[in-house]
Amino acid sequence: MEPFDYLAGYPRELVEAARRGLSDGSLARGLLARYPGRHGVRTNAALYGLAQELKQRHLRRAPPLAKVLFDERLTARESALGLNSRLARVQGGRLATKREIRIAGLFRDLAPEFLRLVLVHELAHLKEFDHGPAFYRLCRAMEPDYDQIEFDLRLWLWLRESPAGAGFPGNPSAAPGVP
Length: 179
Description:
Elements: H1 12-24, H2 26-34, H3 44-58, E1 67-71, E2 82-91, E3 94-104, H4 112-124, H5 133-142, H6 146-161
């Protein structure tokens, strides 16, 4: 998968503008200006608390969450940015379902908007299982700037994997100590 796959499905003009921004450095400068901060969510307990706060605000009737945690095994290339799973177990004479959300570990060091986007996306799966129109309506209700932040996250991921983004925060080949 080449880095441009993150932008698959977007209009050719947007992809070309992103390529130009990549080559002249304006893409990195623009993303860093738009998303300068890092969130303070460092532990799984804090991540669970944030997810519960969002769930309480937007999805009160949704099923309860058993776990929400960062998972270092999840990567943008090989698997996903987040996973929502239901584990069914027989307890006594009834079937009990536990719901878990796992967020890729790379979100520990990204902007709070990106972490919130992935949480909103995974929480929306508690109510809407597939990526249909109702799912995206729910995501937009929970995060009004959902579409823009998702596009910017795709640009961020694309940039961090490209050779031009070698010094970009979050780039796997960035110097040690650079987030």
